[in-house]
Amino acid sequence: MTRCKLCLSDNTQPINLDKIYHHCEQCDFVFIDSSHLISEEEERKRYLEHNNTMENTGYVNMFLTFITNALQPHYSEAKKILDYGCGPNPVFAQIMRNQGKDVAVYDPFFSPSNAYLRKRYDIITLTEVLEHIQHPLPTLQPLITRLSRDGLLAIMTRIHPGVDAFEKWWYRMDNTHISFYSLKTAQFLAKQLGVRMVKTDGERFFCLQS
Fold first, then answer.
1. Domain 39-158+183-209, CATH
2. DSSP H helical segments within the chain, as ranges?
3. Starting at the edge strand that comes first in sequence, how are the strands of the sheet with 196-200 ordered?
4. How confident is the model at residue 77, as a pLDDT?
5. What is the pLDDT of residues 54-111, one digit of tens each?
6. Model pTM?
7. Pairing relation of β-strands 121-127 and 147-156?
8. What is the DSSP string of 135-150?
């Protein structure tokens, strides 16, 4: 039995596909078996292959939709924002700066300075980030402490469709996607972090508030 990397329960079941995954029956977290993890060098190379630029209108529109659907109404009043996991080209940060926001960035590969930990933020975003992280709680816990009062932690990641539909789910095919969340998992995260889940579309994002 493999222990859950989120809630540490032993109540997990394997999902044997082209790769081995594990499903936690306690918190509904699904995570890839450690034998299928790629190296940091391979991971970084994969991110550099993405066409994530301001010229990619589909990519830009994804962020504009996220601002409208996930961040509002908090976004209108927010002054300081942290884009955590910004990637090699911090397009989302640039969009928000163009809209008058004071935006800091962090990325373990491309913007690794920990200076962001010395400030507080009205909104912290993780857009297409959490699915890449093996152990989400140790990543999210220090971010919660950086939120201002009533601050928003907004997470964009695909909500997993359940074990029965997992085999054909396209989102798992990316070899850097290793952790998958349901709304039950998101509620567990909120409880562990001492915050509330205040918004979700049930498919693409969920938001936690301090």
1. 3.40.50.150
2. 40-48, 57-66, 74-77, 91-98, 136-144, 183-193
3. 102-106, 80-84, 121-127, 147-156, 205-209, 196-200
4. 97
5. 999 999 999 999 999 999 999 999 999 999 999 999 999 999 999 999 999 999 999 9
6. 0.96
7. parallel
8. -HHHHHHHHHTTEEEE
Amino acid in the structure at residue 32: I
Please report, for residues 18, 33, 95, the alpha-carbon distance to residue 55 in angstroms, rounded to integers and kept in the order given.
35, 36, 12
Helix (H, G, I), strand (E, B) or coil at 130: helix
Go through 126-164 and write b for each residue having 16 or more CB atoms within 10 A of its CB, e for each that does not.
bbbbbbbbeebeebbeebbebbbeebbbbbbbbbbeeee
Q: Domain ranges in the chain? A: 39-158+183-209
Hey, what amino acid is at 163? V
Q: Count the Cβ atoms, other than its own, within 10 Å of residue 8.
A: 11
User: Which amino acid would we find at residue 28?
Assistant: D
Percent of the chain with pLDDT over 90: 98
